């Protein structure tokens, strides 16, 4: 019947090309697929036929369902032309690639350390670090690369604050961190930078054990975690919290500069910041794709997902679902974007989201108030976009302003 035919569409491959003419919109095909069927078969590079979720409700249901595993060794990357077959297992301390009960144990230990008090201390630090970098920008420009001058160093220093990296180690730390996100560094150089950073954290652990300071890493040394686990977790926090926040600041600024009326609203009313940040998270969905594997047969949306099937969720498509967010392709800072999935959902929902929010709520209004005439220094189509898998964003954002 027509109904059955509709329930078994031809497997597609994952659309990757961004919508023409807009650096913020997900691939146009994703909207078509979501309209046809929010959960549908998809072909993976190794020939496996798994699934693609594009609707908000079904994406949320998958993320909340423990019958879907996050274990890397069960997952295939959906990237056409990319590596095929299951991935290597998670390294020690990498929470995103493991399931309960191992995951629950780490998660509990860590969640207890991201306290209200710690977030308050970090808010004071981000205000200072933001102001320092805006001062430096003012001295250096006009015409600066906002990524290099602001969007990358602020979150990098905030991770140093979180982990308690001593001032004397920060220059080296920042250098490796910059390499981690550099467009010119190949995958190998980036992996080497991550290893170097994890080693830096590893070297800190014994010092924190011997002489605890007021930071998350010192807090964690009082738990049952081994030195190896602590170094792994520290390196992972860095990897999870740096590129993400840096690209939200970079791409978010680009989006605000491209919607001057929205930027003006934020400049006029810094009280709009909290809600503006949620809307930017939704609209940009920089962590655009998630992957899971079914541990058993699961019936969902009238379809049968078989045990072992890989399921890709398109967070960017889900966050533009008109059934959840009316007029979803419009950036509207007045909107209540609650319920967006930009930080994920369920057991693996972002552990650093309060820190990320604090950084963005301080940084965006401060930037736009300090430079009321801030604008792009190049045509928008010349801004180099990160179009790789993982995290969407900008490699550079040349900006200028009128000097008083
Ligand atoms: C997990 C996004 C900032 C630490 C996640 C996940 C997403 C995400 C989508 C879920 C991954 C999954 O389900 O597999 C973001 C975005 C950020 C951000 C968009 C910035 C705007 C941060 C920061 C930190 C952090 C600043 C810490 C310093 C983590 C950790 C996890 C995680 C530890 C793993 C949680 C788990 O698997 O239990 N993040 N993140 N993130 N994030 Fe974030």
Automatic annotation (TrEMBL):
Keywords: Heme, Iron, Metal-binding, Monooxygenase, Oxidoreductase
Gene3D superfamilies: Cytochrome P450
InterPro entries, alphabetized: Cyt_P450, Cyt_P450_B, Cyt_P450_CS, Cyt_P450_sf
Pfam families in the cross-refs: p450 (PF00067)
Segments of skewed composition (Low complexity): 1-11
GO molecular function: heme binding; iron ion binding; monooxygenase activity; oxidoreductase activity, acting on paired donors, with incorporation or reduction of molecular oxygen
Top-level lineage group: Bacteria
Family listed: Belongs to the cytochrome P450 family.
Protein name per UniProt: Cytochrome P450
Organism of derivation: Streptomyces glebosus
């Amino acid at each position: 019947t027509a109904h059955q035919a509709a329930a078994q569409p031809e497997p597609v491959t994952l659309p990757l090309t961004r919508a023409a003419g807009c650096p913020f919109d997900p691939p146009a095909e994703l909207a078509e697929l979501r309209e046809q069927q929010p959960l549908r078969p998809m072909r993976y590079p190794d020939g496996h036929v798994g699934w693609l979720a594009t609707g908000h409700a079904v994406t949320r249901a998958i993320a909340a369902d423990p019958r879907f595993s996050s274990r890397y060794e069960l997952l295939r990357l959906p990237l056409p032309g990319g590596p095929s077959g299951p991935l290597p297992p998670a390294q020690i301390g990498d929470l995103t690639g493991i399931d309960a009960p191992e995951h629950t144990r780490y998660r509990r230990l860590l969640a207890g350390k991201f306290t209200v008090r710690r977030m308050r201390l970090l808010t004071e630090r981000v205000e200072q670090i933001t102001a320092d970098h805006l001062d430096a920008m003012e001295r250096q420009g006009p015409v600066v690369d906002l990524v290099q001058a602001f969007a990358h160093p602020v979150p990098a220093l905030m991770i140093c604050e979180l982990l308690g990296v001593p001032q004397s180690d920060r220059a080296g730390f920042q250098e490796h961190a910059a390499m981690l996100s550099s467009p010119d560094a190949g995958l190998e150089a980036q992996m080497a930078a991550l290893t170097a950073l994890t080693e830096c954290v590893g070297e800190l652990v014994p010092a924190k054990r011997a002489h605890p300071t007021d930071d998350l890493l010192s807090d964690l040394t009082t738990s049952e975690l081994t030195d190896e686990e602590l170094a792994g977790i520290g390196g992972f926090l860095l990897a999870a919290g740096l590129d993400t926040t840096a690209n939200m600041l970079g791409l978010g600024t680009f989006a605000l500069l491209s919607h001057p009326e929205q930027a003006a609203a934020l400049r006029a009313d810094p009280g709009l910041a909290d809600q503006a940040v949620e809307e930017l998270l939704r609209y940009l969905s920089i962590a655009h794709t998630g992957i899971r594997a079914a541990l058993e047969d699961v019936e969902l949306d009238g379809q049968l997902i078989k045990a072992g099937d890989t399921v890709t969720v398109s967070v960017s498509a889900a966050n533009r679902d008109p059934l959840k967010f009316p007029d979803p392709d419009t950036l509207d800072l007045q909107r209540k974007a609650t319920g967006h999935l930009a930080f994920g959902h369920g057991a693996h929902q972002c552990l650093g989201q309060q820190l990320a929010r604090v950084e963005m709520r301080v940084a965006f209004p401060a930037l736009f108030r300090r430079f009321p005439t801030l604008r792009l220094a190049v045509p928008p189509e010349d801004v180099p976009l990160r179009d790789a898998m993982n995290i969407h964003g900008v490699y550079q954002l040349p900006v200028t302003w009128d000097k008083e």
